[in-house]
Design goal:
With 340 residues, this protein is mostly beta strands. It folds into two domains: 95 residues, Coagulation Factor XIII, Chain A, domain 1 (Distorted Sandwich), CATH 2.70.50.50; 190 residues. 12% of the residues lie in helices and 36% in strands. It is built from five helices and 20 strands. Strands 5, 8, 9, 11, 12 and 14 form a six-stranded antiparallel sheet that branches. The chain has a five-stranded antiparallel sheet with strand order 7-6-10-15-13. A four-stranded antiparallel sheet has the order 17-3-19-20, with no helix packed on it. Strand 19 and strand 20 form a beta hairpin. 23% of the residues are buried.
Length: 340
């Protein structure tokens, strides 16, 4: 009997399996072609439209509601704000850079016969200087250029000299306008010692030009420090031929100094121009603007999206609707005016 049972056991197992399947509920025997992964509805022909909800307050700090109709699977959203504008979808955005200058300055001494030189220095700029700071004709070329004043924008040590260690902070002041011509700009400290008077020394340290990106302050950075400005002296013959204490002997990468023989009581008028390297403002390339992706669920082919503007102005808002894996797009734009 045991031998017969072993012989027919496989056949009995097969018969039990068939019977069990016949008795299973119909829901368990669902054909795999009916599973959700295979019956997902196709979105159909692309449809999309957008309007602004009439109840939206078009004011700074208020939510603007955009109402969608359609069936797009993907919606790219350009709010029209800086850095998220449809106009820069296919072109690089360049940030304009402003410039602010700062430095520290001091002067000495205040002894007798120096009063004619208590205001020994003024700051100028030129856009037509030819750049010659070292040839035998350098002084002639400097005098031929047009030098425009900048001194009044800054704090300098005025009145009685307080000593070379008593530095005055100039403040950080905007000089963006001097670059508006587009060409190189030269800064120059014009320093003088009047005839028949004792000279006053004048020092400048920690000069810095900061590049200011108003639209994206994170890109603001120092463009030139004092070493990079690389001031070089161009002197008139009287200053150049005084024999000792020439200004360029006391000027370094970190300190600019107007100097000269102290006793000039019987000497002539002396002047010098400490002129910078040619200066230009760069442009920062921020690349192309990228959209924000709107993720949501359609409800009877409708959906909403809200956005809050933090600045007043006119905005071109753009929406690019598409289906996944499709090159077809529907682009809609709306112009809105946001008030304070």
């Amino acid at each position: 009997m045991k031998e017969l049972f072993k012989k027919y056991l496989p056949i009995l197992c097969i018969l039990c399996t068939v019977v069990s399947c016949k008795d299973m509920p119909e829901s368990f025997l669902t054909n795999t072609s009916e599973l959700p992964m295979d019956v997902e509805e196709k979105p159909g022909a692309l449809e999309f439209n957008v309007t602004v909800d009439p109840s939206s307050l078009l004011k700074v700090g208020e939510k603007v509601t955009f109402q969608f109709t359609g069936n797009a699977e993907v919606i790219a959203f350009y709010s029209g704000t800086f850095g998220n504008a449809y106009a820069y979808r296919d072109q690089d955005r360049f940030y304009d850079v402003g410039a602010s200058l700062s430095f520290q300055s001091s002067k000495s001494p205040s002894s007798s016969n120096t009063q004619p030189n208590w205001e020994p220095a003024e700051l100028f700029y030129s856009t037509d200087f030819n750049g010659d700071r070292s040839s035998p004709n350098a002084y002639t070329n400097v005098k031929a250029a047009t030098w425009l004043p900048l001194t009044d924008r800054f704090e300098l040590p005025r009145g009685t000299p307080q000593g070379l260690a008593a530095y005055v902070n100039s403040g950080m002041e905007d000089i963006s306008d001097i670059f508006e011509g587009g060409g190189p700009v030269y800064l120059a400290w014009h320093c003088t010692t009047q005839a028949a008077s004792n000279r006053v020394q004048f020092n400048v340290i920690e000069s810095s030009i900061q590049g200011i990106v108003t639209d994206n302050p994170t890109l603001s950075t120092e463009l030139y420090n004092q070493s990079q400005l690389n001031f070089q002296w161009v002197l008139n013959p009287a200053a150049a031929n005084q024999g000792s204490r020439l200004p360029d002997e006391y000027t370094s990468a970190t300190v600019l100094q107007w100097d000269g023989v102290y006793n000039n009581l019987s000497g002539p008028f002396k002047e010098g121009y400490a002129i910078s390297e040619p200066l230009e403002l760069p442009q920062f390339n921020a690349g192309r603007d990228t959209p924000m992706s709107i993720v949501g669920r359609w409800n009877n082919k409708t959906m909403k999206h809200t956005f809050t503007y933090d600045k007043a102005g006119e905005y071109e808002v753009a929406f690019i609707a598409s289906h996944l894996g499709s090159e077809q797009e529907i682009i809609k734009t709306i112009t809105i005016n946001i008030e304070e």
